[in-house]
Amino acid sequence: MSQVRRAVTGWGFALPFAALFAVFMAVPVLASLVMSFTDIRSTDLRDPLAVDFVGLDNYLRLFDDELFVRAATNTAVFVVLGVPLTMAGALLVALGLNAGVTRFRTVFRVGYYLPVVTSIVAIAVVWRFLLQPDTGLVNTMLGLVGIDGAKWLDDTRTALPTLVVMAAWRNLGFSMVIFLAGLQAIPQDLYEAARIDGAGRWAQFRYVTLPVLRPTLLFVAVVTTIGYVQFFEEPFVMTQGGPLDSTLSMAYHTYNQFGFGSYGYASAMSYVLFLVVVALSIAWFRLLRANT
Amino acid sequence: MRRRRTSSRAVIALACALVLAAAGCGRDSGETEQAEGQQVAEGKATGELTVWAMGTEGEKLSVLAEDFMADNPDAKVTVTAVPWDGAHNKIATAIAGGQTPDVSMLGTTWMGEFAKTGALDVVPADLFSKGDFFEGAWDTGIVDGTSFAVPWYVETRLLYVNKEVAARAGVTKPTNWQELKDAVTALQKEGGAQWGIYLQPGQTGAWQTAMPFVWQNGGEVLDGDAFTLDSSEATGGLEYYGSFFADGLSSKDQLRGGEWEPQFASGAIGSFVSGPWHISVLDELGAGDKFDLWPMPKGASSASSFIGGSNLGVFKDSDNRDAAWKFVSYLMRPEVQVKWYQTVNDLPAVRSAWDDDVLSADPMLAMFGDQLEDAKAPPSIATWEQVAAAIDGELERVAKGASSAADAAKAMQQKATSIGTGG
Fold this sequence. Notes:
By secondary structure, chain A is mostly helical. Chain A is about 75% helix and about 0% strand.
């Protein structure tokens, strides 16, 4: 009797989420999976069942789509440059705040975290001003030391790296907070023991901090990678994917295809993106999981 | 799109169910035939109407709706303002859900897509006649030979030229391609402008700047069902567009809206191509008396410009179709079109409205009116937005010198052909 009641209570609590999830997440996700095997377009809206099944055609077409290949390459570059940069930057700042800076610690924490909570639109406006080729602060400063600044966002060679730096700056705060929490959870006696054994600062970092921080590193790596593989906002507000598609990301290309009404093709693209996210997350777990 | 895990059994079950459901269906292979709209009953409009409109039009349409209701006391018109950003999706969702309004404002480049869904009613020939409207505008409502919407207001593009720079350069209105090229060169060399002209160097919407050159040279986007973007005429148009960048007359870097107007006012940019809204933009910058308008130059074939604007369509699912078309027809009366111009500055799509003093007395407006007689829109195909994006991408290559006009034309043709017309 009490077991039944428990089950009912349990399901009762789970129901609001389960129902919402089923209707607004599971069904659309499955529908888009089915769509990715059809040639559905926006012109089929009134009669969505009157479409042809095309099997894996949409997926095969992706690899002939030069823009998709371009977008995939851009995304790969963004992730390979962006994730280490963000994590290294965040860890450095966290170490600094944890050890060195005692005064104004809160001010720094807020300062680094502020970009995370600021609207990307506002950030874009400010960065565009900073990066203006003729009048922007960046090139003016470079000019003072005798360097001719590039046309950051209008040059195919610098546009993507510029967005990487911007994304790292923007996302650093979040990883920093997680790292700080991780660092503060490391027991001081571990460091004391290390010091007694004669470990210097580097050895302490290498043999105490890093190993203990491993779960935190894993979490930050996975979350950052998932976010960066789907990178979209930066090119959307800063470059619209240009110049010459040099900042077009997979998510942006997918967004465009949905906009063009190629629902089937765009769904196939989102599933490829999804598989990439899953594969990279698994890779991180393999790489950083606790030694057993 | 982040949380996508669910029990795999459920996935398979649902996928199977959907596959089975869909396997029995499949596309109709039948061609759509040209259709005539049904007649609309005589008499006053009655019943309730829901009308969707975007932007300023959505905010102000109730002014005309009030007048209409005064004329037709048994009708009740409810205007819903829809923000432009979400409008396309909102209409698409309404069609998918079968919850369409009676009447909606429709972007001219959406016509192919929405008409193909079968959600739009055919324009009744007894209420609207093609000759009353600018040809380029009327054509935007035609999909596969059938008319699905009526042009409501229009806009077209002219050359804005900085007067002082032009005076220093000693140039007057050019009439053909060579003269325009010479004039722009003079604006830069003798007029002292950093850039003789600003043409959008690729990226979203650049086709609106480049396609007029193709049309002026006798090129077309489409011939029947086949794209003709690599014809020698089209290639010639692209070459002309590209030459402004190759000769250093226009910046290869895209300037955002709001960036080039002050530069134009100060004389750093000698000229640019844009629609009538820039008159008030320049007015606000205090440059209202600093510019002249030039018509489009004549190429080998014509002096066509781009025509934009919005259409009005009635949805098939409307419960009050006759009243809906009567409301649309009311908005097309010349005097109502003039009142609409006075309310929101939208240029009339109905030609006879231009005879009214309100419009004909203004020399700048009159120039837009003249250009509207020779202005074209892209073909109303369901895939236009996608084809346009492919064209924009290639235009960027031409502008930046990464591709020759001929190669870009071939690439456009190949991409457009693989996208298809959606028919």
